[in-house]
Amino acid sequence: MELKVYGHIYPANSILERELSEALESAICDDISHDIPLLEREKDMLRISFEGRYFPEEDVIDVLKRHLKHEHRGKLDILDMDDWRMRRYLFDGGELVRKEASLNQVMDYSGF
Fold first, then answer.
1. Beta 3-10 vs 28-29: how paired, if at all?
2. Which residues contact 73 (CB under 8 A, 6 or more apart)?
3. Under a CB-based contact definition with an 8 Å cutoff, are residues 48 and 20 in contact?
4. Rg of the chain over CA atoms, in angstroms?
5. What is this structure's pTM?
6. What is the pLDDT along the chain (112 residues), one digit of tens a residue?
7. How many domains does the chain have?
């Protein structure tokens, strides 16, 4: 399975960062992106960047759900290259919304 995952959430504190880092420990990256950090902090924003075979989606979403507050904003896109689908989690106003679409639909919408 080939997955690509990109996302961000802000504002983030050290507790959220630590718990996301722990949730990401079981991820299995591909050889090319193995040296790229899965989780990076930019001021009060956390960024997730991943390419590989296994991403602990449920664990990451569980952490985000536990810490999600009204002031949080961001998204997490999970692209399943084998099934040609994308799952998008949006974080806004304390709400977490999941959407799913084929990558063809996503590319048509974005103008590719």
1. unpaired
2. 9, 10, 91, 92
3. yes
4. 14
5. 0.89
6. 799 999 999 999 999 999 999 999 999 988 765 677 899 999 999 999 999 999 999 999 999 999 999 999 999 999 999 999 999 999 999 999 999 999 887 766 654 4
7. 1
Cα–Cα distance for residue pair 33/10, rounded to 1 Å: 24
What CATH number does residue 66 fall under?
Answer: 3.30.70
Task: List the domain range (segments joined by +) for residue 70.
Answer: 3-110
User: Contact 13/85 with Cβ under 8 angstroms?
Assistant: no
- Structure tokens belonging to residue 23: 């949730």
Q: The tokens of 53 are what? A: 């075979």
Contacts 24+ apart (CB under 8 A), 10-18: 10/44, 10/45, 10/46, 10/72, 10/73, 10/74, 11/44, 11/45, 11/71, 11/72, 12/41, 12/44, 12/45, 12/46, 15/67, 16/46, 16/63, 16/67, 17/41, 17/46
Residue with tokens 């090319």: 32
